[in-house]
Amino acid sequence: MSLRDVGGRRRFEDPEFTLRVYPGSIAEDTIYCPVVARKTTTAAEVIERLIERLRLDRTKCYVLAEVKEFGGEEWILNPSDCPVQRMMLWPRLALENRVGGEDYRFLLREKNLDGSIHYGSLQMWLCVTEQRRRMVERGFLPPPRPKDHDDLCNLPDLNEKTLLENLRARFKQEKIYTYVGSILVAVNPFKFLPIYNPKYVKMYDNHQLGKLEPHVYAVADVAYHAMLQRRLNQCIVISGESGSGKTQSTNFLIHHLTALSQKGFASGVEQTILGAGPVLEAFGNAKTAHNNNSSRFGKFIQVNYLESGTVRGAYVEKYLLEKSRLVYQEHNERNYHVFYYLLAGASEEERAAFHLKKPEEYHYLNQDCFTVEGEDLKHDFERLQLAMEMVGFLPATRKQIFSLLSAILHLGNIRYKRKTYRDDSIDICNLEVLPVVSDLLEVGTPHLGSLFLQAGTVRDSMAKSLYSALFDWIVFRINHALLNNRDLEESILSIGVLDIFGFEDYENNSFEQFCINFANEHLQHYFNQHTFKLEQEEYRAEGISWLNIDYIDNSGCISLICKKPTGLFHLLDEECNFPQATNQTLLDKFKRQHDGNSYIEFPAVMEPAFIIRHYAGKVKYGVKDFREKNTDHMRPDIVALLKSSRSAFIGSLISIDPVATFRWAVLRAYYRAAVAFREAGRRRSEKKSGEPSGAECASTFLPQGAGERQQHLERSWHEEQPPEPVGTAAGGGRHHGELHQQQTPGASAGHPHHLLDVKSVKYLSGLTLHDRITKSLLHLHKKKKPPSISAQFQASLNKLMETLEQSEPYFVKCIRSNADKLPLRFSDSLVLRQLRYTGMLETVRIRQSGYSIKYSHEDFAQHFRVLLAEGTKPNQLSIQEFMRKADLSPGGFQVGRTMVFLREAERQRLQDLLHREVLRRIVALQRRFRALRERKSFVSMRLAACVIQVRMQLCRPLQVEEHNGHIFKSTQYNIPTYCEYCSSIIWIMDRACVLCRYACHRKCCLKTTTKCSKKVRSRASVHTAEKFGVELSRLTSDDRPVPQVVEKLISYIEMHGLYTEGIYRKSGSTNKIKELKQGLDTDVDSMNLDDYNIHVIASVFKQWLRDLPNPLLTFELYEEFLRAMGLQDKREVIRGVYSVIDQLSRTHLSTLERLIFHLVRIALQEETNRMSANALAIVFAPCILRCPDSIDPLQSVQDISKTTACVELIIGEQMNKYKARLKDITSLEYAENKCSVRPVEVIVVEGWSISSKTPNAPPRAVSVEIIDHDDVLLSRSCTSSPSHKLCPSLISVEAGL
After folding, report:
1. What are the helix and strand counts (H, E) for the chain?
2. Which residues form the Myosin motor domain (predicted)?
3. Is 1226 known as a binding-site position?
4. 243 labelled binding-site residue
5. Quick check: pTM over 0.70?
6. HSE (CB half, 13 Å, CA atoms) of 1291?
7. Greatest extent of the chain over all pairs of C-alpha atoms, in Å
8. How far is residue 1147 from each of residues 114, 290, 304, measured CA to CA in Å?
9. 498-536: per-residue pLDDT in tens?
10. Is 242 annotated as a binding residue?
């Protein structure tokens, strides 16, 4: 398949791809179904093709699910999602022709009525389980293993052996998650486990921790609901060694947090994070000796929420990119992935434009290994291209990024040699490299060469600083894509997920490992503070019975490294200030200051190294390059050279002030626009000699006194074409307007949304004030001395710890199961070592004997006020007395001076008691209310009975009369009833049919022409199918998309009741309604609706809608309609409601369109019939948008306002469309006049409907074009008609023709 370069990005010439969709139990005879699709093919179109090929039941609802790489999680695709675009993000192995692959695939799932996904037969599983139990009883199968404990706090005998055995036993059963109270222990299985599909997402939704099997979803769910209930920020801290699965756990958490907000459908934020992951991975990950995809930086992902729980934005913060890897790699290690992707995947045009070579020809890449087993670099480059496009990088931006990467590689190829006649000077061996670097950086070659001759360290320093600045810029752009403008003004609720580099101990550990391990020391100290120190101090302060538990406190190690003025970091900064300092002087200073400190040792032999006793063990660090890496600055003349680059992109990377850069970009765009106007005027004046010069007019656009700046900009205008749009400051001039936030598929591509402005630039730059490692070191000419790398890293770490301190923490401890990355291999020694240095035994002990639930006295009394006796005061004695009466375990709670401490079991018991008491009171209130209502009804009926008895004594007995099959007899009416013949009221005593309950006056019984329905039905020999209370699909067909009974009732109401006041508000006679319903059930065609009052017909129509087993808007889409109505922006609400309507089946959609069109016609006559859109929505919302029976009744009552507003919105939108089309009728009158003058031609075009999903549905509008024989368009008009016929005005035009 050939490739073509388009704006710096390769594109396939053949746009078609083959999707393999596995239907599973939906089509058991089919393993997979191939579907040909393009990049723009939506999931709804793929499902439609699958239904046709597999001949599936169209009355059911189907969804497309994607199984992703990280653990086989199933993610439901939106109907508008494009499966091919998601498939392009898969790795190469997933795209091979494998039928039995377990990780990447598309699945076809059936959606149940309640919105859940159908996965298989539970009865079959139960049958297999029962057979296995019988085989065990007969001795054919071994007995089950002893029960393991999903919470280590429940171990009866607590020691290292039982701890390890329990984890091993669960691991062998593929149970990788275990609780320690609220702490989650995750053992990396190095294998796919199918425990991350939507079934588990729904299973763990809004459940208490510990009720179900331990899972990472449970931690995310508890954090999410705790944030909403307490209105406090939450954080989830993930820690562990390199290779323990921290990044995968982060992916699970982020996707589950998004699923809780979006109910399984990918939002704009999730899509951006999905694209940001491969981008950050390519630029920040590399192969190390222990990990083929090791993250060489740390990140903190903060997901921001509205108070309703909907995701509205996110923020990514990075920590300490390992810059030294760019210029030097240890044995069996590689440089960053992106270099290998670019060299392997670039097209021939790109290779020529970027001067690319093979990896072994670059000094920065040929130091050790080039390849990793099983990788496909070309596919990875395609995946990176698509991910960058999803984040918002336009082709021009990607081209400049790749050009800069090539320049960095060529910088490493510059070689030096000493001049023979001078010992202190150097020369460049290969001068042919300089023009290439100059061309890629767009700087002058002579200036570049003279600067490189001044110092040999300039090359590596410049390369590292440029790459670090590029990485900062990419993170800035990703944060802009995730930014929500409301975050700038309002306070937010958030959940942060920390995925930071794990503890490292390599053969040669340098400055980077020292910083990484220091960060892990801080995190371990944070864990100890919340798990041991603060909790035990609180117990002692509250005066409760408590036996203190000892733990390993690592605060001494932290003080050794960072405490002023003798901390190792501060001593390192002092040595960096002395030009004469060496590695040995630095080591000597360490010895003098910390000799005798138990946390630091020095080798016995003369070795430039020192040993730190970390919480995870001893690590030896070599002091070589410590001072250079701590400063790592660039010379001011190099900065000046890069700032003089003709590329605004290069200039923006080294800018220290993003706000100033953005303002300059705006000013530059203004000048360039002015120059463009003047150039256009000059060319125009040259063509039209003698007229005023356009250049003079255009010069008025320039401010006075522009002078030299104007001439300089004119030159730059001619040098840099095309002109640059203004937008984001991070991209320089040419790329300012290209990045917009969360652009969803189908959005308008003509105008970018959420472009950067000064306010948003200030906000984003303010978030990273602590992280100016690259920018400050690029500007050494400033008066204030720039901080060192260690100082910057400490500032970043302190900000992170402040963020964590302001949040409620949850901990996920990741454990590496084996060192060889083998699937389901459990290494006892390796796991035990990790359990020891993390203090897991002490953690279990304090969680086992401690109290995880805490309330203040006031909060406890408020939360459990229903259980407390009236007048109970929130003090220690009152609460202790209540606990004693509640029959709780004495060891499960303690009441302190101001706090109440509970264990999880006791809290759950109190919650159950509270739930039962609340239900009991609700039932009591309902019983009392119903008794009052029945009492009132009884008193009224008793009074009426007395009146009737008096009247009956005055009336003589009436004889039985028979007419048209009716058997009329004197009947007493207890409620107001209307005569079904003359429609006037019947007073107390009159006639009624004893068979069908036909009610009428005595004078009317012989006049009625309606036959008794009971007698007619009893004589009928053949029973027809019923029309009420049956599935809609049974009443429709391809020839009749709308049920006959619906069309008959609606047409009659529109013909005779359009102007009737309260047409749907007033009810008809109950007996008449019953009679008409029975007649329609018997034979729709033979029923004469003229015999019935219009309110009876309207009531029967509403009854038909209410009797549908599945309402028009379906049970399965009920929650999605409510979710759409909960959006903030009205346009988003309308777009959301109509996107849900698109998911309806053809049968439901056709009937809904007919009903909405009918309601629009009713609402248009509001002045006469007093039925507004709101009044109609109140009446019809319970009929067409009913809640499923599985929803809590109290919740359904709260949803009434949303369902009514949803129906009112649909009616209102269709009214607007209807009115807009009726305005064109005046053009038809004009056309009629033209018809008498000259012959014309009428063209009728069928038009609009509510949804475009049903191409075979009959049209709901007619478009008419009138064209004369000279091909002159005289008129075009649209009108609407429920019967799909031309309106009278159009018929008259045709007749005139």
Report:
1. 47, 34
2. 147-915
3. no
4. yes
5. no
6. 6
7. 143
8. 19, 58, 40
9. 888 778 787 888 888 898 889 888 888 888 888 777 778
10. yes
